[in-house]
Amino acid sequence: MEQKKEEEVLRLIISKAWEDINFRKCLVSDPIKAIENLTGAKIVLPEGKTLVINDQTDKSKVYVNIPSEPNIEDIELTEDQLEIIAGGGKTIWRDLVNSLFPTLKNYIKI
Questions:
Q1: pLDDT, tens digit (0-9, with 9 covering 90-100), for 44-72
Q2: Which distant-in-sequence residues (6+ apart) come within 8 Å of 110 by Cβ?
Q3: What is the distance in angstroms between the CA of the first residue and the CA of the last residue of the chain?
Q4: What is the C-alpha separation between 94 and 96, in angstroms, rounded?
């Protein structure tokens, strides 16, 4: 149930940012304050972490975010992924790339 509430908050934030340019500007400049004011939800980040919001609404641009390198020890693989890796496959990278760069791959021609 909590995950559903969190998803609703995220949908509200994104919808408001699409509709209201002033909210979008506030969201980029002071994301925690903007989110808390809009939703009433409390944002609690781990010590040393910062929330960064990038405005990617310009449809004339293709955006790519470079994620932080994952801690391999913290990754839990599904049985299917373990089988693929045991057979020499590289499903983790494919899944990661497809989830992080869903549109960029459409523009790469080799």
A1: 988 998 999 999 999 999 888 887 776 76
A2: none
A3: 45
A4: 5
Contact 63, 98 (CB under 8 A): no
pTM more than 0.70:
no
Tokens standing for 40?
Answer: 């009433």
Distance of CA 67 to the CA centre of its chain: 9
How would DSSP label each residue in the chain? -HHHHHHHHHHHHHHHHHH-HHHHHHHHHSHHHHHHHHH-PPP-PPTT----------TTS-----PPPP-GGG----HHHHHHHHTT--HHHHHHHHHH-TTGGGG---
Query: What is the longest distance spanned by two Cα atoms in the chain?
Result: 52
Alpha carbon dihedral 35, 2, 79, 64, in 10-degree steps, equals -10
Residues 6 or more apart from 103 whose CB is under 8 A from it?
Answer: 62
